[in-house]
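Input.
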Amino acid sequence: MTPLMHAAYKGKADMCRLLLQHGADVNCNQHEYGYTALMFAGLSGKTDITSMMLDAGAEIDLVNSVGRTAAQMAAFVGQHDCVTVINNFFSRARLEYYTRPQGVDTEPMLPPRLAGPLHKIIMTTNLNPVKIVLLVKEEPALVDPWALQKCSRVMELLCEQCVQQQDMNEVLAMKMHYLGCVLNKCLSFLQNREDKLDSLLRSLLRGRDSDGFPQYQEKFIRDCIRKFPYCETNLLQELVRSIAPVEIGNDPTAFAVLSQALTGQMAFVEGDYCVTCGEKGADKRCSLCKAVVYCSLACQKLHWFTHKKMCGSMQDQDAKAQDTPKLKELKAEEKVAAAGGCPLELLSRPSTSSEGPPRPRD
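Output.
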């Protein structure tokens, strides 16, 4: 093992950074069994080191003596977060190709100032459309119809490139197509409304009256998959077979199926993901119903307009399973919900008592 391999396997990020700065070969595979530093990073379970190796030019298709890639090695030992990082890596150099005029063109297809914000969206491992729209809102350069048109066109070209390249990458092609669909939806709302994507977020989050299920979001994701232009790909056919027989509102959702296919993550653990943006590791509950979790106060505020319709009934269901003295403690909180107020100050970490098993923590 080279020093870089040792540092990656032992999770020493500072040492990895130092060695790479001094010219360590990130793709060296002279190990006895053909392992690379990226493989050892995946085995360690350290996503920051895995990303560091990828940024340094680590090749994801190299295989060891038993024919396994770095992503396959990480999956074999259960390090699925590292698998997600590897599967979603996209070199910024490939994107910056479009920031330079090509052929007879006098202007680049993608203005250089948009390369950074767009690359951030491409690299996201959270494919929830709400999260992607929030990423767009965070970048002032993207909240502009002209900029979104440019980005959408580049995503179409990247999707086509992934399919037509010698080693066709169906997963990356589908991801580029899906992200392009979300950007196009943002463009449509910006052109027709003046609220800077707030109405789009509300549409994606609005829950069905009967059970709070976000129908618009489910239909939107299904429509994105249906519009994938390469019908002959195995990935598209597998997605259709998984989603088509499922009625809207039942499991698995289109988002869960698409995320598992594109990121390599295992099935979602209930309660571990923010109900608003899908961010992993959500650790705050609505203090009234205790039934939904969020990653932040901002996400709870964003979701309250639709959750308040169901919060009362969820609270009643939770109350039936508790002792009578506990019910009295909730009376004041019921008044808050009845008045339509968002109980932001009442957010708390998930309980480990009657509310279900404790959530994993770092």
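The radius of gyration is 23 Å.
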